[in-house]
Amino acid sequence: MPWKRLNKKKARAKPFFDQAMADYNASNFLGAIRGFSEYLKILPDALDARLNRGFAHNKLGQSELALADFEYVLKIKPDDPYALEEAAKTRARLPRKVETLTSIFQVTDMKVTDAGYRELQSLIERYGIAGLTTDRKFEPNLSLTIDAYEMLMANGLKTLRQMASASDISDARFAELFGLTCPKPKAAAGSLNSGEVVNGLKCTFGPSTLKAISPEKPIGRGYFAMLLSQALDHGTEKLKLNSKLEDPKTGPITKATAASAKELVERGLELIGKKDYMGASRLFTQAIEYDPNYIEAYRFRGISAFLIYDRIRRCKGKCFTRRN
């Protein structure tokens, strides 16, 4: 009878499983992998052994092997909660292929109605930032890893360097404008928290108005893209001001007039009316830089910051979920 043969296989395989679990609990992960592998030679579709072998692979940093086990489980049991969770975490740890797109329309998992769409569009089309996507997927809900942070920050600085060179801004002046030796944020369990990332952006690009809404919580790729776009916009404005200072054709630059700051505030209010609170905040910040005594710009910037917070609070973590 088939069930008798299956029972004999289970009886023959059980010692391997028991030893593998004992090795795992003793932190002998290599031994655990060997035991689960022997067990799977006898019972190749045993999901518990596949799942546990995946855990052991992850303990040894063997992410690709771990992911293969988790994906095997999901083929047979697509709703397995442990396999789903571990597969997502493991994918986030894998090195991402550097990919350079030229248009937001090449991104397959973001829609115009998704939060962060405009900022991602700016990073791709205006700044030409490489490494934002893999196989044309942005995956905004994935946690930001230290490797992704360092790559995207470096690519952002590279873009600003190219702008500076085109404006005849010297390397020495560029080093004065931007933080080129900022400390790396500390990663916990492979991901970065919002507070550390915001401090890194402030140190590198100088937008003192950036704030982390939940400093202790891990930051996702989507939220980081929004912050990076804002930081690069700030960096671009600094380059514009300094290119005028160093361009002999335009002569010495004078302080922007109150009318310039007023115009920025008026444009910011228009963006608030269009619910583009991030864009409005950037304009109010520019107005303050032009005229630090412009009280209305501070007030409206505070209002836009509250509106940004309120939007994120209402999202309850679902802002970056793709809607079909």
Task: Write a structural description.
It is built from 13 helices and no strands. The protein has helices at 2-25, 29-42, 47-59, 63-76, 81-93, 117-126, 146-166, 171-177, 194-205, 221-246, 258-273, 277-290, 295-315. It has 324 residues and is an all-alpha fold. The model is unreliable at 245-257 and 320-324 (pLDDT under 50).
* Contiguous runs where pLDDT drops below 50 for at least 5 residues: 245-257, 320-324
Largest sheet: none
Helix content: 55-70%
* SSE sequence, one letter per element: HHHHHHHHHHHHH
Q: C-alpha Rg, in Å?
A: 26 Å
Report the principal-axis shape.
elongated
Strand content: under 5%
Care to count the β-strands?
Answer: 0
Distance between the termini: 49 Å
Q: Kindly report the average pLDDT value.
A: 83
The structure class reads mainly alpha
Report the total helices. Answer: 13
Brief description of this entry?
The chain is an all-alpha fold. It contains 13 helices and no strands.
Name the features.
324 residues; mainly alpha; single chain; disordered C terminus; 13 helices
Give the secondary structure arrangement, pairings included:
Layout: H1 2-25, H2 29-42, H3 47-59, H4 63-76, H5 81-93, H6 117-126, H7 146-166, H8 171-177, H9 194-205, H10 221-246, H11 258-273, H12 277-290, H13 295-315
Helix pairs in contact: 1-2, 2-3, 3-4, 4-5, 6-10, 7-10, 9-10, 10-12, 11-12, 11-13, 12-13
